[in-house]
Amino acid sequence: MMLNPLNSFLAHDRLMVLDGALATELERRGANLNDALWSAKLLIEQPELIRAVHADYFAAGADVATTASYQATFEAFTRRGMSRAEAADLMRLSVTLACEARDAFWAEPSNRVGRLRPLVAASVGPYGAMLADGSEYRGHYGLSRAALADFHRERMQVLSSSGADLLACETIPCLDEALAIADVLAEQNNMTAWISFSCKDGEHNVQGERLADCVAVLEAYPHIVAIGVNCTAPEHVASLVEQAKARTTKPVLVYPNSGEHYDAEGKVWTGACNPADAYAEMAARWQAKGARMIGGCCRTGPDDIRAVRLMAAA
Q: How far is CA 245 from the centre of its chain?
């Protein structure tokens, strides 16, 4: 029987607090991630720093850690001269690091007051992330749904058997890739996942499809336990939540960027980030629109998640 790990967190209309950015937080702490592997590079070089970031998010109030496997693919590790077995071990390590941080946090009795034991979500990045050329912010891969399923299958199988509570299939640019992931989930009855799209405005994913239409199609897939948006400008989120909420009975999740904008070609951030208190004010509006799970994506950090937790507890 398939169990939904989100149920206890969302009972009685509670808000589930997600974590914030991993890669950009690692960069803020001095890591050089100018690399095709991005945060997965530190699975090889500095795994202890990944564990430390997870620990800080739990301390800030996160109910879930999202692992450093977003850009951890067989193809990317093969380009580094690694075997498939070595690549799979690094994927498993990403889950182990998050679980270790969670278990150390939960071992302290004071951390359990008013909290449920946090979850670990294994990150599954899109096909475009493997290309490392910004394709996940454009879509239009030119691949069939079956080919996309073939790309995701083995990695999803490794991550789902590594001790994670669910998969976080994130920054998805188009419905075809979401459906390919749904096909793989249906093949393995023990896997559950959330799917979150990257969106370019208040109505469309980055490929140009209406989010409401994507959500409506995914409603029929029981292994998808939440649907939403991430890696999206925060000013678009309230509208996107409204549209998603109108087309699904599943929990709607949102974890947008800090307010800065990313130039995928130049690989630079521009603009100003929202301070933590302003981010929490926006999160309160997203919750009022119907979001049940809220966190942060690129350029957000533990202070933002702490502010969201305090907002949720108010």
A: 19
If pLDDT is split at 50, 70 and 90, which confidence band does 262 have? low
Residue 223 backbone phi and psi in degrees, to 5: -80, -10
Length of the chain: 314
Any binding-site annotation on 174? no
Q: How far apart, in whole angstroms, are the C-alpha atoms of residue 13 and residue 10?
A: 6
Q: Quick one: which of 91, 252, 98, 122 has its CA closest to 192?
A: 122
Question: Per the confidence metrics, is the pTM higher than 0.90?
Answer: yes
Q: Is 273 annotated as a binding residue?
A: no
- Please check whether residue 234 is in contact with residue 282, taking contact to mean a CB–CB distance below 8 angstroms: yes
Query: Parallel, antiparallel, or unpaired for β 16-17 and 291-294?
Result: parallel
Domains by residue range for the chain, with CATH: 7-313 (3.20.20.330)
Residue 231 annotated in ligand binding: yes
**Which of 33, 251, 234, 255 lies closest to 129, judged by CA?**
33
Interval 263-282 mean pLDDT: 77
